[in-house]
Amino acid sequence: MTEIEVFLKKEIGADLGSRQKIEKLFKNIEPHVSMVIMNFEGVEFIGRSFAQEYLNRKHLASFEVVEKNMPEDIQKMFEIILKINNRL
Fold this sequence. Notes:
single chain; two-stranded parallel ribbon; Transcription Regulator spoIIAA; alpha/beta; globular
């Protein structure tokens, strides 16, 4: 089992707003990786489009994705996106 940890603040920044940035991040993960830990430490903001794309990429990923150090307000954003998706 190959596991990596991605520090989102370091890789993208404290403000996660661009859908393209998460697309690029997921595309650059090596194919032999079986688990990715997304570390949200230091992340201050997440936009709706970023959150939507993150959840889409997580769902389609060939590896397990787990979150670490996720601030409560960012967790709420993910919950809102999931509720909206369940209504569609």
